[in-house]
Amino acid sequence: MALFGSKSKAVVGLDIGSSAVKAVELKKTKTGHELTSVDLEALSPEAVADGAITDSLAVSSAIEALLTRNKIKTPNVAISVSGPPVITKRITMGLMEADELYDQIHHDAGQYIPFDLADVSLDYQVLGTTPMGDQQEVLLVAVKKAKIADYQRTLSLVPGRKLGLAVVDVDAFAVQNAFEANYDPSPDATIALLNIGASVTNINIVRGGVPLFIRDVAVGGNQYTDALQKDFELTWEQAEEAKRGQPVPGVNTEQMMAVLRGTSETLLLLEIQKTFDFFRATAGAEPISQIYVAGGAARTPGLLDLLREEFQMQVEELNPFNRVNYNPGKFSDDFIRERAPRLAVCVGLALRSFDEA
Predict the structure, then answer these.
(1) Residue 354: burial class (beta carbons within 10 Å; 0-12, 13-18, 19+)
(2) Beta pairing, strands 201-207 & 290-294
(3) Is the torsion defined by CA of 29, 76, 181, 39 positive or negative?
């Protein structure tokens, strides 16, 4: 989904999450895409809260460390947003020329966007015609300008750099870009893409490359960390290790698994089920047949098995490097494998370098 940005411009995919800043650079080859740079820089829990940058200096320092360590010179950046400042709507409009459609959308946007239009950046993507062929479906996206300004301000603080914000994407669409570049689902398959971050889970239900239903849920990996800290009186760092399945002194593995499962059942699964139920009730589409899971919490012990058990369908971890070539002398298989789920958004953003003009 190409939104909010210039096309055909080399960019660094920069994912500013609640737990880390991630950067990916790709280049196009005869056989597909090749990884040229990838890295992560951890952030303190206070630097980004609920998807909002609260310490611009800390985040800009992390960006500088990433770019310097990896000798990244590309000045153009692609970032993505999610959560309450982002609105996505599928709307149906009459068939019309591109210029007329532009004028009509900007004239009518106020009835779809619950914000003052002066306060948002607006973009749209034509998805195709309706089954009858007499109308067209359009995906309308609005992002609060203040959200974008926060990113621009943070980029301007990166020392010794003049970084340009070339692309603003949406987390759910970036994950979809990464998915479509790495997998060949049946065009008739309805697939749920889950990106479980530290504080937000993005849910994007797609079929044939078209997003049918998008929802951001304020639940993520931090809930697991909080539960482990509370139940076992752990430090934040110890709880993070336990969440990743690493042994922590004094923590019984069976008890830990019970806490993780309980958190999944009472928070994450409930919201996913509500989303799926609402989609079925409103979309009238074919049932969801498969789930792909990305994000930092994708490898929470027992989570994928619990999703399989709950929804009785195929559930896989989304690998954003499934078809991305890389030099094993520069990036080891273990390095890529360990970080892959956390980098889906970042890979999707880096792919914006190859948008069609």
Answers:
(1) middle
(2) unpaired
(3) positive
Distances (CA, A) of 142 to 106, 169, 317, 334: 11, 11, 29, 39
Q: Give the Cα separation of 192 and 285 in Å (integer).
A: 13
Helix/strand/coil for 49: strand
pLDDT at 3: 57
One-letter amino acid of 113 = I
Rounded to 5 degrees, φ, ψ at 313 are -150, 170
Q: What is the pLDDT of residues 70-102, one digit of tens each?
A: 999 999 999 999 999 999 999 999 999 999 999
Q: State the residue for tokens 């909080």.
A: 226
pLDDT attached to residue 5: 62
Give, rounded to a whole angstrom, the gap between the first and last alpha carbons of the chain: 13
Q: Residue 171 is which amino acid?
A: D
Please count the CA atoms within 13 angstroms of the CA of 259 that sit on its side-chain side.
Answer: 22
pLDDT at site 131: 85
Q: In terms of pLDDT, which residue wins out, 51 or 213?
A: 213
How far is residue 273's CA from residue 200's CA, in Å, rounded to a whole number? Answer: 16
**Cβ-based burial of 203 (10 A; exposed 0-12, middle 13-18, buried ≥19):** buried
- pLDDT reported for residue 2: 47
Domains of the chain by range and CATH?
A: 1-84+145-183+322-357 (3.30.420.40), 185-318 (3.30.420.40)
